[in-house]
Amino acid sequence: MPAPDRRKPRFLALANQKGGVGKTTTAINLATALAAKRKVLLIDLDPQGNASTGLGIPRSERGAGSYALLIGDRPLASLVRPTAVPDLGLVPADPELAGAEVELVTLPDRDRRLRQALEAATELLAHYDYVFFDCPPSLGLLTLNALVAADGVLVPLQCEFFALEGMSQITRTLDRVKRALNPALTLEGIVLTMYDRRNNLSELVAADVRGFFKERVFDTVIPRNVRVSEAPSHGLPVLLYDFRSIGAQAYVQLAAELLKREREREKTAAA
Ligand code: ADP
Ligand code: MG
């Protein structure tokens, strides 16, 4: 039994069954912005490994990572790699992760393996404040493992037509996971991404999403910004690639808002 006062990080999953909505970009850059003030770990759960590449670990150098954690019972401590960001560690997506969805089906505790692996690493995790899970663009077993291990879910949402329809699928999944597998799971928030001020649709969709999800939508909006899309090809978060870009600054602001929301939540809980 861990000591009751042992620090435990906050586990946050970046999830949305749609691809290309900014999950990985938000995982990398929110984690980087938070690492200026907190200790952060990012676990790449997408077989495509874009978070790993974007943090400077190319496919050929991945070695053991989240697959080994989920399937091979390798301890977390042996899988964490340093990144160019001082207080940001990474568990990369190893090449074998592509087969994990299929392999997990036949394994015991197939949807709790990540949670169990993290529970076995409380000592190491006490050094971290935040652990992010970058999920693949599906609601399969890898995402399910993240949702079962998470305290909260961050849903990046691209400001485009059908954005709300996409939200109903993910919220249904969250409700189901909450009911059956992880009652403590919360919707930490919705992050509007790739916002284009010149496009009326962006504005309309943002208003719609805010009208429906109210304060669960972060005030901070991530603008579409070419520096954000260039950074991964240099293996760098946009905060290191071009700190002054509007994209980098938006992620700095998002991190500050996340911390502020957390302080408010703690205040409410204590009251
Ligand atoms: P997901 O992980 O949800 O599939 P990504 O984060 O990989 O989505 O983003 C999809 C693509 O959009 C990537 O090429 C990424 O570089 C680009 N992108 C993401 N956010 C922005 C942004 N704010 N401005 C410009 N391009 C972006
Ligand atoms: Mg991704």
TrEMBL record:
It comes from the Bacteria. This is ParA family protein. PANTHER family: P-LOOP CONTAINING NUCLEOSIDE TRIPHOSPHATE HYDROLASE, PARA FAMILY PROTEIN CT_582. InterPro entries: AAA_dom (IPR025669), DNA_Partitioning_ATPase (IPR050678), P-loop_NTPase (IPR027417). Residues 11-186 form the AAA domain. It holds the Pfam family AAA_31.
